User: What shape does this take?
Amino acid sequence: MRKLASVFGGTLLLTLAVAFLARDAAATRQAAPAVNDSLIAPNLTPADSAALKGPRQPIFFRHDIHAGQYKINCQYCHYSVSVSSEPGIPSMGTCMNCHLVIGGTDSTAKVEIAKVRESFNTGTPVEWNRVYFLARHAHFPHMRHINAMGPNACATCHGDVTRAPQVFKVNNVNNMGFCINCHLERNVSRDCSVCHY
Assistant: This one.
């Protein structure tokens, strides 16, 4: 019986300590002045996407909102980029980590988030339109570039997606000169066999 009481008491103390620390952390966040360095994404609808650069997507996914305004790190969604040649398209499960509770603030967002939820609930994959195509004879291992250049390496090729309502091809990655210039700037290998099979 004493063991049970001490285990329960210890659990209760731990729970109270965690609650106390969380309350203090919340109070500190409220007391500290907010740093407004976030970008405020413009109000756009899927109909506006036709006038934007890049291919229209089945869901009007806004990188400027997710990566810009809310500062979600690229690798949260593209989680395999540091261990794989491909950056990977996020699963609807990744989207639902947030959109299980976030339903959108306006009618446009609500409609697009409903598409995400429907895809997740029915198990029907979203058929995204590819933006970047790499020549079949070239090899671009994303993981090597991310590991060498850090988590912000994405912007080197893809531009500042934090300001892009719709992703578009910023650089011509099929132009070997783009890659060679990048390798020259960083003083890394220009051996043909590194990129070509």
In short: Residues 2-31 form the longest helix (30 residues). Residues 1-36 have pLDDT under 50 and may be disordered. The radius of gyration is 22 Å.
